[in-house]
């Protein structure tokens, strides 16, 4: 008999203070509002990413103009289109995460990282005077909002270890 087998054979099952049905319904009712709230946040982030992605992919010059940025060489529009493709991909990732936040929490972590870099870059360029507050618009505060919402709504493991079973 191995140590692992011996351990498993002698470990008693964990008992709960309430019946299984009551524990499940209590856990579900406590988790649903947070999960619904997080899913709504992920959908909102996805919409923002899709709008930016579509704009920068399909009409890069017009997007730059709408932000009040000066005209740039044509090659910059190529960079904007590639950036737009990444916005679209991240938007798709947010929709995937909205289906099952626990299972796809790597997407949430990636978005927190993206927003941290976006925020720091935006503030650095604002501080340097390269862009104005009017030009960066919502990029001056949305990274903080997105990070706070994702951090606050970070999915916790469900009771019973059945994460992702319904997806």
From TrEMBL:
Transmembrane segment boundaries: 42-63, 75-97, 106-126, 132-151
Q: Which UniProt keywords apply?
A: Membrane, Transmembrane, Transmembrane helix
**Designated name of the protein:** Uncharacterized protein
Q: Which organism is it from?
A: Ideonella livida
């Amino acid at each position: 008999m191995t140590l692992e087998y011996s351990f498993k054979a002698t470990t008693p099952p964990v008992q709960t203070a309430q019946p299984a049905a009551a524990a499940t319904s209590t856990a579900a009712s406590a988790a649903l509002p947070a999960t619904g709230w997080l899913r709504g946040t992920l959908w909102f982030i996805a919409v923002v990413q899709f709008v930016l992605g579509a704009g920068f992919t399909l009409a890069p010059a017009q997007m730059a103009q709408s932000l009040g940025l000066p005209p740039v060489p044509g090659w910059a529009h190529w960079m904007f289109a590639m950036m737009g493709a990444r916005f679209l991909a991240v938007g798709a990732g947010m929709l995937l995460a909205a289906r099952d936040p626990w299972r796809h929490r790597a997407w949430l972590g990636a978005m927190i990282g993206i927003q941290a870099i976006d925020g720091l870059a935006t503030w650095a360029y604002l501080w340097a005077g390269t862009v104005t507050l009017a030009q960066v618009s919502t990029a001056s505060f949305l990274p903080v909002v997105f990070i706070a919402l994702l951090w606050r709504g970070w999915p916790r493991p469900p009771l019973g270890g059945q994460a992702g079973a319904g997806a």
